[in-house]
Design brief:
Blueprint (H helix, E strand, L loop, with lengths): L1 E8 L7 E9 L2 E7 H4 L6 E4 L3 E5 L1 E6 L16 H13 L3 H17 L2 E8 L4 H6 L4 E8 L10 H4 L6 H5 L3 E5 L7 H13 L4 E5 L3 H9 L3 H8 L14 H7 L7 E5 L5 H10 L2 E4 L1 H7 L6 H7 L2 E4 L12 H11 L5 H8 L1 H6 L17 E5 L6 H10 L4 E2 L2
Parallel strand pairs: 1-4, 1-5, 6-7, 7-8, 8-9, 9-10, 10-11, 11-12, 12-13
Antiparallel strand pairs: 1-2, 2-3, 5-14, 14-15
Amino acid sequence: MIAHTSSWVLPVSGPPIRDGAVVVQGERIHAVGPAAEVLAGFKGLICEHGAGAILPGVVNCHVHLEFSALAGQVAPRERWEDWLEAALAAYGALSPGEIRAGIAYGIEALRQSGAILVGEVTNTGTSWPHLAAGPLSYHVFYECLGFDLVERFDLPQAFPWFGQPEVAAAGCVSAAAHAPYSVSPALFQAVAQWNTARSGPQMVHLAESRAELDFLTGGNGFFEGLLKRRGRWVADFRPPGVSPPAYLHGLEFLGPQTLAVHGAWLSPEDCGLLADTGTWLVLCPRANRYTGAGTPPVAELVKAGVNLALGTDSLAGNRDLNLFGEMLWLYQNFPAYPGELWLRLATWNGARALGRDQDLGSLEPGKQAALGFIPLSGRRDFWGELFTAGAAGQWRWLG
Protein backbone atom coordinates (compact mmCIF):
# COMPACT_ATOMS: atom_id res chain seq x y z
CA MET A 1 0.00 0.00 0.00
CA ILE A 2 1.04 3.58 -0.71
CA ALA A 3 -0.51 6.63 0.95
CA HIS A 4 -0.57 10.01 -0.81
CA THR A 5 -1.08 13.02 1.43
CA SER A 6 -1.67 16.68 0.67
CA SER A 7 -3.09 19.82 2.23
CA TRP A 8 -6.28 19.08 0.30
CA VAL A 9 -7.93 15.96 -1.11
CA LEU A 10 -10.88 16.49 -3.50
CA PRO A 11 -12.90 13.24 -3.67
CA VAL A 12 -15.66 14.92 -5.79
CA SER A 13 -18.17 12.42 -4.41
CA GLY A 14 -17.90 14.25 -1.09
CA PRO A 15 -16.71 17.60 0.26
CA PRO A 16 -13.05 18.66 0.07
CA ILE A 17 -10.88 17.14 2.81
CA ARG A 18 -8.38 19.35 4.58
CA ASP A 19 -5.03 17.58 5.29
CA GLY A 20 -6.25 14.47 3.53
CA ALA A 21 -4.85 11.15 2.39
CA VAL A 22 -5.57 8.63 -0.37
CA VAL A 23 -4.34 5.09 0.22
CA VAL A 24 -3.69 3.05 -2.91
CA GLN A 25 -3.32 -0.72 -3.09
CA GLY A 26 -2.15 -1.97 -6.44
CA GLU A 27 -4.22 -0.15 -9.08
CA ARG A 28 -7.20 0.56 -6.80
CA ILE A 29 -8.06 3.08 -4.12
CA HIS A 30 -8.16 1.50 -0.68
CA ALA A 31 -9.14 4.45 1.53
CA VAL A 32 -9.81 8.20 1.37
CA GLY A 33 -10.18 10.63 4.26
CA PRO A 34 -8.42 12.89 6.76
CA ALA A 35 -4.80 11.81 7.08
CA ALA A 36 -5.02 11.62 10.87
CA GLU A 37 -7.74 8.97 10.55
CA VAL A 38 -6.71 7.10 7.42
CA LEU A 39 -3.07 6.74 8.44
CA ALA A 40 -3.66 5.64 12.03
CA GLY A 41 -1.60 2.45 12.31
CA PHE A 42 -0.61 2.61 8.64
CA LYS A 43 2.62 0.71 7.93
CA GLY A 44 3.10 1.36 4.23
CA LEU A 45 4.94 4.02 2.23
CA ILE A 46 3.72 7.59 2.74
CA CYS A 47 4.26 10.11 -0.09
CA GLU A 48 3.81 13.65 1.21
CA HIS A 49 3.00 16.09 -1.61
CA GLY A 50 2.65 19.22 0.47
CA ALA A 51 0.61 22.31 -0.37
CA GLY A 52 -1.85 21.50 -3.12
CA ALA A 53 -4.73 19.21 -4.00
CA ILE A 54 -5.05 15.55 -4.85
CA LEU A 55 -7.96 14.95 -7.21
CA PRO A 56 -9.22 12.39 -9.74
CA GLY A 57 -8.23 12.41 -13.39
CA VAL A 58 -10.63 14.44 -15.51
CA VAL A 59 -13.06 13.19 -18.15
CA ASN A 60 -13.12 14.97 -21.51
CA CYS A 61 -16.43 13.88 -23.00
CA HIS A 62 -16.02 15.44 -26.44
CA VAL A 63 -12.93 15.72 -28.59
CA HIS A 64 -12.06 15.22 -32.27
CA LEU A 65 -8.49 13.89 -32.18
CA GLU A 66 -8.34 13.57 -35.96
CA PHE A 67 -8.33 17.38 -36.18
CA SER A 68 -5.35 17.75 -33.84
CA ALA A 69 -2.94 18.37 -36.72
CA LEU A 70 -4.77 21.66 -37.29
CA ALA A 71 -3.55 23.14 -34.00
CA GLY A 72 -2.91 26.83 -34.59
CA GLN A 73 -3.91 26.65 -38.27
CA VAL A 74 -7.56 27.72 -38.06
CA ALA A 75 -7.93 31.18 -36.53
CA PRO A 76 -10.83 32.14 -34.24
CA ARG A 77 -13.87 33.47 -36.07
CA GLU A 78 -16.75 35.76 -35.23
CA ARG A 79 -19.16 33.67 -37.34
CA TRP A 80 -19.40 29.92 -36.81
CA GLU A 81 -20.16 29.40 -40.51
CA ASP A 82 -16.84 31.02 -41.46
CA TRP A 83 -14.97 28.83 -38.99
CA LEU A 84 -16.62 25.67 -40.35
CA GLU A 85 -15.67 26.48 -43.93
CA ALA A 86 -12.07 27.22 -42.90
CA ALA A 87 -11.79 24.07 -40.78
CA LEU A 88 -13.17 21.79 -43.52
CA ALA A 89 -10.78 23.26 -46.07
CA ALA A 90 -7.78 22.93 -43.77
CA TYR A 91 -8.63 19.34 -42.81
CA GLY A 92 -9.04 18.37 -46.46
CA ALA A 93 -5.46 19.50 -47.12
CA LEU A 94 -3.95 17.20 -44.46
CA SER A 95 -2.05 14.06 -45.42
CA PRO A 96 -2.77 10.73 -43.68
CA GLY A 97 0.61 10.96 -41.97
CA GLU A 98 -0.16 14.42 -40.64
CA ILE A 99 -3.49 13.22 -39.29
CA ARG A 100 -1.86 10.26 -37.49
CA ALA A 101 0.87 12.45 -36.01
CA GLY A 102 -1.79 14.90 -34.84
CA ILE A 103 -3.73 12.13 -33.11
CA ALA A 104 -0.63 11.05 -31.20
CA TYR A 105 0.01 14.67 -30.22
CA GLY A 106 -3.57 15.12 -29.05
CA ILE A 107 -3.52 11.97 -26.91
CA GLU A 108 -0.32 13.11 -25.20
CA ALA A 109 -1.76 16.60 -24.65
CA LEU A 110 -4.86 15.11 -23.03
CA ARG A 111 -2.81 12.89 -20.74
CA GLN A 112 -0.45 15.67 -19.70
CA SER A 113 -3.38 17.91 -18.75
CA GLY A 114 -4.94 15.33 -16.44
CA ALA A 115 -7.40 13.45 -18.66
CA ILE A 116 -7.99 9.81 -17.77
CA LEU A 117 -11.09 9.17 -19.92
CA VAL A 118 -12.07 10.68 -23.27
CA GLY A 119 -15.09 10.58 -25.55
CA GLU A 120 -13.50 10.60 -29.01
CA VAL A 121 -15.48 11.41 -32.15
CA THR A 122 -14.02 9.92 -35.33
CA ASN A 123 -15.10 10.14 -38.96
CA THR A 124 -12.74 7.43 -40.20
CA GLY A 125 -11.83 5.14 -37.29
CA THR A 126 -8.19 6.24 -37.57
CA SER A 127 -7.94 7.37 -33.95
CA TRP A 128 -9.17 4.09 -32.44
CA PRO A 129 -5.90 2.09 -32.75
CA HIS A 130 -3.97 5.04 -31.30
CA LEU A 131 -6.29 5.18 -28.30
CA ALA A 132 -6.20 1.40 -27.86
CA ALA A 133 -2.40 1.51 -27.65
CA GLY A 134 -2.25 4.65 -25.50
CA PRO A 135 -2.58 5.58 -21.81
CA LEU A 136 -6.18 6.84 -21.82
CA SER A 137 -9.45 5.10 -21.13
CA TYR A 138 -11.82 5.98 -23.94
CA HIS A 139 -15.12 5.60 -25.72
CA VAL A 140 -15.05 5.99 -29.50
CA PHE A 141 -18.03 7.50 -31.29
CA TYR A 142 -17.98 6.86 -35.05
CA GLU A 143 -19.76 9.84 -36.55
CA CYS A 144 -22.33 9.30 -39.31
CA LEU A 145 -23.45 11.91 -41.83
CA GLY A 146 -26.13 11.45 -44.46
CA PHE A 147 -28.86 14.02 -44.91
CA ASP A 148 -29.85 12.28 -48.14
CA LEU A 149 -30.23 8.78 -46.65
CA VAL A 150 -34.01 8.93 -46.61
CA GLU A 151 -34.98 5.24 -46.77
CA ARG A 152 -34.91 3.04 -43.66
CA PHE A 153 -31.85 0.81 -43.37
CA ASP A 154 -29.54 -0.96 -40.91
CA LEU A 155 -26.42 1.01 -40.07
CA PRO A 156 -23.79 -1.39 -41.57
CA GLN A 157 -25.57 -1.17 -44.93
CA ALA A 158 -24.54 2.47 -45.39
CA PHE A 159 -21.50 2.47 -43.08
CA PRO A 160 -19.55 -0.79 -43.54
CA TRP A 161 -17.22 0.14 -40.67
CA PHE A 162 -19.94 -1.02 -38.26
CA GLY A 163 -20.06 -4.43 -39.91
CA GLN A 164 -16.50 -5.31 -38.94
CA PRO A 165 -16.46 -8.09 -36.29
CA GLU A 166 -14.06 -6.20 -34.01
CA VAL A 167 -16.32 -3.13 -34.10
CA ALA A 168 -19.52 -5.04 -33.45
CA ALA A 169 -17.90 -6.79 -30.48
CA ALA A 170 -16.28 -3.73 -28.90
CA GLY A 171 -17.90 -2.35 -25.78
CA CYS A 172 -16.06 0.94 -26.11
CA VAL A 173 -17.48 1.87 -29.54
CA SER A 174 -20.76 3.61 -30.40
CA ALA A 175 -22.37 5.30 -33.37
CA ALA A 176 -22.82 9.07 -33.37
CA ALA A 177 -25.21 11.18 -35.43
CA HIS A 178 -23.39 14.32 -36.56
CA ALA A 179 -26.13 16.97 -36.30
CA PRO A 180 -29.79 17.66 -37.19
CA TYR A 181 -28.76 19.49 -40.38
CA SER A 182 -26.57 16.63 -41.68
CA VAL A 183 -28.44 13.49 -40.61
CA SER A 184 -31.75 12.24 -41.98
CA PRO A 185 -34.54 10.82 -39.81
CA ALA A 186 -33.75 7.36 -41.20
CA LEU A 187 -30.09 7.72 -40.21
CA PHE A 188 -31.00 8.94 -36.72
CA GLN A 189 -33.13 5.82 -36.37
CA ALA A 190 -30.37 3.51 -37.61
CA VAL A 191 -27.83 5.06 -35.22
CA ALA A 192 -30.19 4.72 -32.27
CA GLN A 193 -31.03 1.10 -33.09
CA TRP A 194 -27.34 0.13 -33.35
CA ASN A 195 -26.50 1.75 -30.01
CA THR A 196 -29.59 0.45 -28.22
CA ALA A 197 -28.78 -3.11 -29.25
CA ARG A 198 -25.43 -2.70 -27.47
CA SER A 199 -26.70 -0.62 -24.54
CA GLY A 200 -24.14 2.02 -25.44
CA PRO A 201 -24.15 5.81 -25.32
CA GLN A 202 -24.66 7.93 -28.43
CA MET A 203 -23.61 11.44 -29.35
CA VAL A 204 -24.93 14.31 -31.46
CA HIS A 205 -23.96 17.96 -32.01
CA LEU A 206 -27.02 19.97 -30.98
CA ALA A 207 -27.97 23.65 -31.23
CA GLU A 208 -24.36 24.61 -31.89
CA SER A 209 -25.12 27.55 -34.19
CA ARG A 210 -27.87 30.00 -35.04
CA ALA A 211 -27.76 28.63 -38.58
CA GLU A 212 -28.96 25.26 -37.25
CA LEU A 213 -32.07 26.85 -35.75
CA ASP A 214 -32.75 28.77 -38.94
CA PHE A 215 -32.45 25.61 -41.02
CA LEU A 216 -34.88 23.58 -38.90
CA THR A 217 -37.45 26.36 -38.89
CA GLY A 218 -37.03 27.72 -42.43
CA GLY A 219 -35.29 24.97 -44.37
CA ASN A 220 -32.84 27.30 -46.06
CA GLY A 221 -29.85 29.51 -45.31
CA PHE A 222 -26.28 28.41 -44.80
CA PHE A 223 -26.96 24.69 -44.51
CA GLU A 224 -29.10 24.51 -47.63
CA GLY A 225 -26.15 25.89 -49.57
CA LEU A 226 -23.64 23.60 -47.84
CA LEU A 227 -25.71 20.48 -48.48
CA LYS A 228 -26.19 21.40 -52.13
CA ARG A 229 -22.45 21.98 -52.62
CA ARG A 230 -21.72 18.59 -51.10
CA GLY A 231 -24.38 16.77 -53.12
CA ARG A 232 -26.46 15.87 -50.07
CA TRP A 233 -29.53 18.05 -50.59
CA VAL A 234 -33.00 16.48 -50.61
CA ALA A 235 -35.27 18.34 -53.01
CA ASP A 236 -38.53 17.63 -51.16
CA PHE A 237 -37.16 18.45 -47.70
CA ARG A 238 -39.67 20.21 -45.47
CA PRO A 239 -38.33 21.83 -42.27
CA PRO A 240 -39.88 20.47 -39.08
CA GLY A 241 -40.46 23.99 -37.77
CA VAL A 242 -39.25 23.22 -34.23
CA SER A 243 -36.08 23.68 -32.18
CA PRO A 244 -33.23 21.14 -32.47
CA PRO A 245 -34.03 19.40 -29.14
CA ALA A 246 -37.75 19.23 -30.00
CA TYR A 247 -36.86 17.77 -33.40
CA LEU A 248 -34.69 15.03 -31.88
CA HIS A 249 -37.31 14.34 -29.22
CA GLY A 250 -39.82 13.73 -32.00
CA LEU A 251 -37.37 11.22 -33.48
CA GLU A 252 -37.03 9.53 -30.05
CA PHE A 253 -33.30 10.27 -30.06
CA LEU A 254 -33.08 12.02 -26.68
CA GLY A 255 -32.64 10.19 -23.38
CA PRO A 256 -30.12 9.20 -20.68
CA GLN A 257 -27.91 7.38 -23.21
CA THR A 258 -27.58 10.45 -25.45
CA LEU A 259 -24.75 12.95 -25.13
CA ALA A 260 -25.80 16.14 -26.90
CA VAL A 261 -22.88 18.52 -27.42
CA HIS A 262 -22.61 22.34 -27.34
CA GLY A 263 -26.17 23.64 -26.83
CA ALA A 264 -25.16 27.23 -27.48
CA TRP A 265 -28.63 28.10 -28.81
CA LEU A 266 -31.07 26.54 -26.37
CA SER A 267 -34.25 28.21 -25.09
CA PRO A 268 -35.54 27.70 -21.52
CA GLU A 269 -38.07 25.26 -23.01
CA ASP A 270 -35.25 23.34 -24.68
CA CYS A 271 -33.40 23.14 -21.36
CA GLY A 272 -36.51 21.75 -19.72
CA LEU A 273 -36.87 19.13 -22.43
CA LEU A 274 -33.28 17.97 -22.01
CA ALA A 275 -33.81 17.74 -18.26
CA ASP A 276 -37.11 15.89 -18.56
CA THR A 277 -35.64 13.28 -20.91
CA GLY A 278 -32.45 12.82 -18.86
CA THR A 279 -30.32 13.75 -21.87
CA TRP A 280 -26.72 14.73 -21.21
CA LEU A 281 -25.38 18.03 -22.51
CA VAL A 282 -21.62 18.29 -22.98
CA LEU A 283 -20.51 21.91 -22.67
CA CYS A 284 -17.48 23.11 -24.64
CA PRO A 285 -17.68 26.84 -23.85
CA ARG A 286 -14.19 27.92 -24.91
CA ALA A 287 -14.63 26.11 -28.22
CA ASN A 288 -17.98 27.85 -28.74
CA ARG A 289 -16.32 31.22 -28.23
CA TYR A 290 -13.37 30.31 -30.47
CA THR A 291 -15.56 29.25 -33.38
CA GLY A 292 -18.06 32.08 -33.06
CA ALA A 293 -20.89 29.68 -32.20
CA GLY A 294 -22.05 31.59 -29.13
CA THR A 295 -22.32 30.86 -25.41
CA PRO A 296 -24.44 28.10 -23.85
CA PRO A 297 -27.16 29.27 -21.43
CA VAL A 298 -25.39 27.85 -18.39
CA ALA A 299 -27.67 29.46 -15.78
CA GLU A 300 -30.81 28.13 -17.48
CA LEU A 301 -29.27 24.66 -17.85
CA VAL A 302 -28.30 24.46 -14.19
CA LYS A 303 -31.69 25.80 -13.08
CA ALA A 304 -33.51 23.23 -15.21
CA GLY A 305 -31.42 20.39 -13.76
CA VAL A 306 -29.90 19.22 -17.05
CA ASN A 307 -27.24 16.52 -16.77
CA LEU A 308 -24.03 18.39 -17.66
CA ALA A 309 -20.51 17.28 -18.54
CA LEU A 310 -17.53 18.98 -20.21
CA GLY A 311 -15.46 18.66 -23.38
CA THR A 312 -12.92 20.70 -25.30
CA ASP A 313 -13.84 19.85 -28.90
CA SER A 314 -10.86 19.88 -31.28
CA LEU A 315 -7.60 21.75 -31.79
CA ALA A 316 -9.15 23.18 -34.96
CA GLY A 317 -11.62 25.05 -32.75
CA ASN A 318 -9.96 25.53 -29.39
CA ARG A 319 -6.60 26.69 -28.08
CA ASP A 320 -5.84 23.41 -26.30
CA LEU A 321 -7.40 20.17 -25.05
CA ASN A 322 -6.95 21.04 -21.38
CA LEU A 323 -10.27 20.59 -19.58
CA PHE A 324 -9.13 22.85 -16.75
CA GLY A 325 -9.38 25.70 -19.24
CA GLU A 326 -13.11 25.01 -19.57
CA MET A 327 -13.49 24.85 -15.79
CA LEU A 328 -11.63 28.13 -15.37
CA TRP A 329 -13.76 29.84 -18.03
CA LEU A 330 -16.98 28.71 -16.37
CA TYR A 331 -15.74 29.70 -12.92
CA GLN A 332 -14.79 33.18 -14.10
CA ASN A 333 -17.90 33.81 -16.17
CA PHE A 334 -20.49 32.31 -13.80
CA PRO A 335 -19.23 33.35 -10.34
CA ALA A 336 -22.59 32.67 -8.68
CA TYR A 337 -21.86 28.94 -8.77
CA PRO A 338 -19.41 27.09 -6.50
CA GLY A 339 -16.16 25.77 -7.95
CA GLU A 340 -17.14 22.26 -6.86
CA LEU A 341 -19.81 22.27 -9.59
CA TRP A 342 -17.34 22.71 -12.45
CA LEU A 343 -14.98 20.07 -11.06
CA ARG A 344 -17.87 17.63 -10.74
CA LEU A 345 -18.86 18.25 -14.38
CA ALA A 346 -15.28 17.51 -15.44
CA THR A 347 -14.92 14.30 -13.43
CA TRP A 348 -17.81 12.39 -11.90
CA ASN A 349 -20.47 13.64 -14.33
CA GLY A 350 -18.28 12.88 -17.33
CA ALA A 351 -17.66 9.35 -16.10
CA ARG A 352 -21.40 8.86 -15.58
CA ALA A 353 -22.19 10.18 -19.06
CA LEU A 354 -19.79 7.67 -20.62
CA GLY A 355 -20.92 4.81 -18.37
CA ARG A 356 -17.59 4.52 -16.52
CA ASP A 357 -18.43 5.92 -13.08
CA GLN A 358 -17.98 2.53 -11.44
CA ASP A 359 -14.23 2.95 -12.01
CA LEU A 360 -13.48 6.62 -12.64
CA GLY A 361 -14.58 10.18 -11.88
CA SER A 362 -14.14 10.33 -8.09
CA LEU A 363 -11.81 9.22 -5.31
CA GLU A 364 -13.60 6.33 -3.60
CA PRO A 365 -12.49 2.94 -2.26
CA GLY A 366 -12.56 0.32 -5.00
CA LYS A 367 -12.18 2.74 -7.91
CA GLN A 368 -9.14 2.97 -10.14
CA ALA A 369 -6.25 4.88 -8.61
CA ALA A 370 -6.29 7.49 -11.38
CA LEU A 371 -5.31 10.50 -9.32
CA GLY A 372 -3.11 13.52 -9.74
CA PHE A 373 -1.77 16.50 -7.85
CA ILE A 374 -1.90 20.24 -8.49
CA PRO A 375 0.32 22.50 -6.35
CA LEU A 376 -1.34 25.47 -4.63
CA SER A 377 0.02 28.41 -2.68
CA GLY A 378 -3.01 28.72 -0.42
CA ARG A 379 -4.53 31.90 -1.82
CA ARG A 380 -7.99 32.89 -0.62
CA ASP A 381 -9.61 31.96 -3.95
CA PHE A 382 -9.06 28.21 -3.72
CA TRP A 383 -11.03 27.18 -6.80
CA GLY A 384 -9.70 30.00 -8.94
CA GLU A 385 -6.14 29.03 -8.09
CA LEU A 386 -6.84 25.34 -8.69
CA PHE A 387 -8.37 25.88 -12.13
CA THR A 388 -5.71 28.43 -13.11
CA ALA A 389 -2.89 26.08 -12.14
CA GLY A 390 -4.51 23.18 -13.94
CA ALA A 391 -5.08 25.30 -17.07
CA ALA A 392 -1.39 26.30 -16.91
CA GLY A 393 -0.39 22.64 -17.13
CA GLN A 394 0.66 22.06 -13.51
CA TRP A 395 -1.05 18.68 -13.24
CA ARG A 396 1.18 15.82 -12.05
CA TRP A 397 0.08 12.19 -12.08
CA LEU A 398 0.56 10.21 -8.86
CA GLY A 399 1.62 6.58 -8.92
